[in-house]
């Protein structure tokens, strides 16, 4: 069967202006228990690549520049 | 090389003791093993990152089961847990925990983790349980993982993050020989030979589907997909009392604790829509959950955690704990809904089902030395069968496992495994990456967990279970023949679905085997509604024999701490009776 992509609004938001992933920082990507964050090839900033979030907060708590915000996933908000 | 791109590779390393899972029990097991023999190699393997993995990723608000001299005795605690778990307890392991846990508290204190003290400098222990007093708040509970991590670095434990263990390896004579694992970002495989292996892989928390429909909105850390249960099963280890499900009273939709252990000692309580209490004791037992369930269905629901009657300063104190530790997004959630604890109660609901000995009694069978039924294989924490053991139990039993496993490793050489087993496992792991077309893991997972809700959630009805098992078998066939993984991350999820499917099958099999009702809501069988002590006052052990799932009875070990007849049903009397 063919596959279709599925739109979803993701809970983790990264402020590109504050994110220093382009300087080599990978803290949020490193600590995520579900491994859902990645560094974008296009912008060199962190972003949520997979909508598999436990809204647990290490990414936000450990970010050295305060660039990451965890929101409650829409389905349970 | 871009992250998640699949790399075909296989390498092999060896160590003396391999600890799988770096959450709570795992770091303590690794630390104790290394301190036991500093010359030995100890590897701590973790699917995520030890810095932030497991149930205590963001810390913990307190100890739920601290047995502290002057407040409680090991005898009293052993008695309480025996009664709370309907008598089906091998007391030796519980008693040993109760004797050792104070030493562990002191050790955690030396790591920099603080516990609440009163003005006299004594531990300020609070009462939540039915009989005894065991709850000890942790004022800097958010620092637990950092404190543990410092100890691991200092002891030079070898940490391998982002490796998911998939199967255990054994020798022809049945001894543990190591484990096969896969890198979750490259799909490269790593075989780890070990003289002893300790499983600390957490609960099976992604078994039922949360009512929100969000697959990762689980009570347990959603990374805890039951991989330890599945691995132990395939290695031939026995699993105990899996029908004693974990079901918790949680903040509705958020699906995290509210939490009665934090707020209860300050005067908060569980109430129905009339504002009345209906349960005697907020301690999480199956009997309490049954009354919670009955209240929700009775028309007197919804059920709430009542706080608003408390002094505003008290509420602020509770709020600061709830919104800082364990699940800090609770504050964000309540803010989004406009709920202020000062004016509104917290709406509660029943969680999806899971396996977890930390809260109930469903785990890989272990004795009082944390040994499983496979020589050289140990288990500790939420996935091991010591009942109601919570975070302090994970630390304490992890410590027991680490010491005993190192003794085992010191007295044994490496066991030899068959290279063909590794080749077979590599084929199984990589199969979803070799298909061009098929079903992605998220759809198979959703369907499996939806079936768990529809058919396996209590009340347990035999006919529903039979139908559920047929549907699960169909989903399993899809999983085995048609599942695809297009990158390494999707392969991680594909492997987790296989653990979830195994756990679903075990949940069904174990539940049908025990032909009685016990543990309140956890094992309520409508076709066998009564507790049957004559035939079922025993453990059930599930294992894989000749490739087939089988169950057998195992006698409860004679009690170390006797229970008087009039104490046995203390937890059965949970419902508050209207007095004349």
UniProtKB/TrEMBL annotation, chain A:
Gene3D superfamilies in the record:
3.30.70.20
Any single Pfam family the record assigns to this protein? Fer4_7
Tell me the GO molecular function terms. Answer: 4 iron, 4 sulfur cluster binding; metal ion binding
Q: Which domain of life is it from?
A: Bacteria
Q: What SUPFAM superfamilies has UniProt attached to this entry?
A: 4Fe-4S ferredoxins (SSF54862)
List, alphabetically, the InterPro entries matched: 4Fe4S_Fe-S-bd, 4Fe4S_Fe_S_CS, PSI_iron-sulfur_center
Residues annotated as domain 4Fe-4S ferredoxin-type: 10-42, 44-73
Q: Keywords for this entry?
A: 4Fe-4S, Iron, Iron-sulfur, Metal-binding
Q: Which organism is it from?
A: Bradyrhizobium yuanmingense
PANTHER family xrefs: BSR3197 PROTEIN, PHOTOSYSTEM I IRON-SULFUR CENTER-RELATED
User: Is Iron-sulfur a UniProt keyword of this protein?
Assistant: yes
Q: What is this protein identified as? A: 4Fe-4S ferredoxin
From TrEMBL, chain B:
Q: Give the Gene3D superfamilies listed for this entry.
A: FAD/NAD(P)-binding domain (3.50.50.60)
FAD-dependent oxidoreductase 2 FAD-binding domain boundaries: 16-387
User: Which keywords has UniProt assigned to this entry?
Assistant: Flavoprotein, Oxidoreductase
Q: Which Pfam families match?
A: FAD_binding_2, Succ_DH_flav_C
Q: Sorted alphabetically, which InterPro entries does this protein's record hold?
A: FAD-dep_OxRdtase_2_FAD-bd, FAD/NAD-bd_sf, Fum_R/Succ_DH_flav-like_C_sf, Fum_Rdtase/Succ_DH_flav-like_C, SdhA/FrdA/AprA
* Sequence ranges assigned to domain Fumarate reductase/succinate dehydrogenase flavoprotein-like C-terminal in this UniProt record: 467-559
Q: What is this protein called?
A: Fumarate reductase/succinate dehydrogenase flavoprotein subunit
């Amino acid at each position: 069967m063919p596959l279709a992509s599925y739109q979803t609004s993701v809970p983790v938001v990264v402020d590109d202006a504050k994110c220093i992933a382009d300087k080599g920082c990978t803290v949020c990507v490193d600590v995520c228990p579900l491994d859902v964050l990645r560094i974008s090839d296009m912008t060199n900033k962190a972003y949520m690549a997979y909508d598999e979030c436990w809204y647990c907060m290490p990414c936000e708590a450990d970010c050295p520049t305060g660039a990451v915000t965890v929101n409650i996933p829409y389905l349970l908000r | 090389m871009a992250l998640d791109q699949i790399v075909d590779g296989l390498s092999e390393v060896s160590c003396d003791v391999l600890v799988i899972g770096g959450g709570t029990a795992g770091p303590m097991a690794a630390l104790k093993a290394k301190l036991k023999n500093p010359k030995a190699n100890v590897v701590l393997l973790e699917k995520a990152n030890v810095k932030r993995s497991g149930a205590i990723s963001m810390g913990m608000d307190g100890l739920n089961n601290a047995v502290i001299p002057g407040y409680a005795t090991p005898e009293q605690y052993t008695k309480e847990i025996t009664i709370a778990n309907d008598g089906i307890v091998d007391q030796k392991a519980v008693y040993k925990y109760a004797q050792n846990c104070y030493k562990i508290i002191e050790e955690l204190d030396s790591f920099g983790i603080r516990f609440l003290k009163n003005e006299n400098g004594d531990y300020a222990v609070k009462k939540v349980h039915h009989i005894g007093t065991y709850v000890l708040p942790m004022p800097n509970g958010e620092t637990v993982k950092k404190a543990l991590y410092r100890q691991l670095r200092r002891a030079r434990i070898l940490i391998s993050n982002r490796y998911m263990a998939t199967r255990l390896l054994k020798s022809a004579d049945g001894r543990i020989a190591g484990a096969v694992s896969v890198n979750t970002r490259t799909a490269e495989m790593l075989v780890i030979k070990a003289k002893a292996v300790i499983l600390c892989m957490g609960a099976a928390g992604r078994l039922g589907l949360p009512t929100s429909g969000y697959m990762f909105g689980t009570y347990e850390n959603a990374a805890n997909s039951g991989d330890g249960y599945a691995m132990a099963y395939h290695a031939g280890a026995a699993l105990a009392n899996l029908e004693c499900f974990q079901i918790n009273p949680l903040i509705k939709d958020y699906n995290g604790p509210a939490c009665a252990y934090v707020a209860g000692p300050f005067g908060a309580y569980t109430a129905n829509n009339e504002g009345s209490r209906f349960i005697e004791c907020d301690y999480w037992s199956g009997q309490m959950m049954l009354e919670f369930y009955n209240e929700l269905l009775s028309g007197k629901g919804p059920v709430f955690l009542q706080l608003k009657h408390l002094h505003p300063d008290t509420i602020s104190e509770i709020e600061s704990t709830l919104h800082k530790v364990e699940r800090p997004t609770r504050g964000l959630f309540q803010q989004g809904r406009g709920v202020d604890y000062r004016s509104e109660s917290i709406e509660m609901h029943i969680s999806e089902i899971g396996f977890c000995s930390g809260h109930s009694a469903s785990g890989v069978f272990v004795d009082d030395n944390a040994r499983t039924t496979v020589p050289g294989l140990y288990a500790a924490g939420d996935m091991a069968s010591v009942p109601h053991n919570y975070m302090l139990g994970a630390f304490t039993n992890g410590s027991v496992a680490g010491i005993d496993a190192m003794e085992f490793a010191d007295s044994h050489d490496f066991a030899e495994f068959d290279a063909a087993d590794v080749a077979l496992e590599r084929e199984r792991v990589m199969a979803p990456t070799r298909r061009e077309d098929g079903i992605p893991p998220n759809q198979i997972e959703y369907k499996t967990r939806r079936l768990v809700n529809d058919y396996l959630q209590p009340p347990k009805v035999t006919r529903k279970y039979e139908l559920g098992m047929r549907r699960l078998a169909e989903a399993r066939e899809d999983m085995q023949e048609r599942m695809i993984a297009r990158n390494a991350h999707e392969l991680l999820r594909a492997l987790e679905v296989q653990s979830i499917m195994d756990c679903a099958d075990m949940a069904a099999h174990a539940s049908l085997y025990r032909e009685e009702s016990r543990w309140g809501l956890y094992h309520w069988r409508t076709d066998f509604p009564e507790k049957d002590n004559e035939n079922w006052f025993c453990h059930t052990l599930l294992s894989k024999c000749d490739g087939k799932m089988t169950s057998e009875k195992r006698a409860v070990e004679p009690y170390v701490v006797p229970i008087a007849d009039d104490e046995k049903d203390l937890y059965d009397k949970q419902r508050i009776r209207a007095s004349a």
